[in-house]
Amino acid sequence: MDGNLVRSLYASRWTAEGGYRTRPDSIALWVEKSGLASMSKAEVDAISGATPRAGELTYAWDLTNTSGDAVAHGEYKFFVEGTLRWKNYVLYSGVIAIGDAPVTVEADAEFIYEASDRNAALTSESPENAMITAVAAVYTPAVDD
Prior knowledge:
The chain is of the alpha+beta class. The protein has 3 helices and 7 strands. Strands 3-4-6 form a 3-stranded antiparallel β-sheet, with no helix packed on it. Strands 1-2 form a two-stranded parallel sheet. It has a two-stranded antiparallel sheet with strand order 5-7. A hairpin with a 2-residue loop joins strand 3 and strand 4. It is globular, with a radius of gyration of 16 Å. The two termini are 31 Å apart. The mean pLDDT is 88.
């Protein structure tokens, strides 16, 4: 909640391996917050993959930080960022409480529409807006036997 990056779960291999240098619009918020430019190759490989397939996707956080240490109970802000087309992107965000009770949080979407040198800005009617939808975070505490 204090603005520090705790953990990244996924970034496309193209962006994570330097594509952001040739196309700075590619998940720019994550690139900035993650400190990607100063990461070692091993750190980047641990959080990247191919472009995701279409359909429902699930990413799981093991409640550890980038060093592998368990995080404390508390509130955590989460983000899902997606480049829709050139400078146009969507940023989903929400806050989830990690503690003793199960919780599901629906993320709020913010669409940013901006024209580039060669392309008009998207609009609220653009089909690209449907590329990422219904983002939620679910926490289920471990059950002690």
